[in-house]
Amino acid sequence: MKLLVIGSGGREHALAWRLAQSPRVQKIYVAPGNGGTANAPLLENLPLQDTDALIAFARDEKIAFTVVGPEAPLAAGIVDAFRAAGQRIFGPTQAAAQLESSKDYAKAFMQRHGIPTAAYQTFTDPQQAKAYIQEQGAPIVIKADGLAAGKGVVVAQTLDEALQAIDHMLGNDGAFGAAGARVVVEEFLDGEEASFIVMCDGQHVLPLATSQDHKRLQDADTGPNTGGMGAYSPAPLVSPALHNRIMREVIQPAIQGMAHDGIPYTGFLYAGLMIDQGPDISRPLKVLEFNCRLGDPETQPIMLRVKNDFTETLEHAVNGTLDQAEIEWDRRTAVGVVLAAAGYPDHPRKGDAITSLAPDTDTCVTFHAGTAIQDGQLRTSGGRVLCITALADSIRRAQQAAYDAVNQTLFEGRQFRRDIGWRALNTSKRHD
Ligand code: AMP
Ligand code: GLY
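A: This is the predicted complex of the input protein with adenosine monophosphate.
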């Protein structure tokens, strides 16, 4: 079979890489792809972005089904367009993608369906937003209402910071453009985050392995928020009992809520959770955000752990038979470390030559994101450049293997965290 993956990030490279292991696969096109998907076995980049051109390609090449990685084409309605043209595709419709594309929609949805989330109010007027913030006090969280690549959130520790964020998002400097026309001001939640991603076919749900991301740029969770600087799977924080609670209190109400609202959810659904660090299972569990797609970089360690033929899993998802699907997980731990370009996240520099890459092995793979081949030379072409992902029988060994490969990977100005996996390491120490 031939498949089409839409996107150009590390998430899409990892997905295409896993799908390419299937004996059923003849070719996987990645549109537009990156410097890694340009050269990998069975993968081919497709320099198309326009939805009509992609649909024509899928039809002409008899693509078995298409999978969409990033949120922007989903929010623009690519799934609706493919379906209208009779092409099979896995992802949420434009209406369903609002769970991610509008924070205000997502918050109202959660409230309506009893899904636990932080208290909030939505504002368009900066003065009203500021008055509310003064009343609530700091810390407090300000979110631009629209897609902002994980960078539209300010966790303000002080009132000053919060008020500045309002000026930035609603004021005249217009830093967020249309996305900043509305802001959600939200209660600050303390605790530990986990990423809980499931597949849905409109009716049935199949959870993927759990994972944890590292949002801040620098070690010890300091520095600015980013799209994610590294991830691991599984997340030891999510015990079997907590897993059941998340399914019962978050995932099932979300899927049923969407169906109830007349917008059946198909695609990957990602719940970003904040879990209070108390000792007992009844501790507060709240949804920070829904994403209508796989996480990046969470997908990289998750895909390294899939043992079965993932084309079959996706086929069930596209056919509406996810109740018959199972995923076989490697019991080992996978850790992915992101190497970002100089200047990321604000002003990533492009064009640095990547002069050395670690060789891929069965248990360590370099997934590409912001890379491109220019005149035969692999160069940086985006904020997050590579995600080096390793699998081993403990978090410590997976971390060591990933960092050994990081040390062999060279480009000018590379930035990476040296502590990816620290929370899991603490949890495993507690259990020793
Ligand atoms: P979001 O895009 O909504 O997930 O926000 C990005 C990041 O900001 C999250 O992963 C958290 O680290 C942080 N964050 C978002 N909302 C809150 C909140 N209510 N309290 C504390 N931190 C938050
Ligand atoms: N890594 C966080 C996200 O994909 O939104």
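The domain at 125-181 is CATH 3.30.1490.20 (Dna Ligase; domain 1). The longest strand covers residues 192-201.
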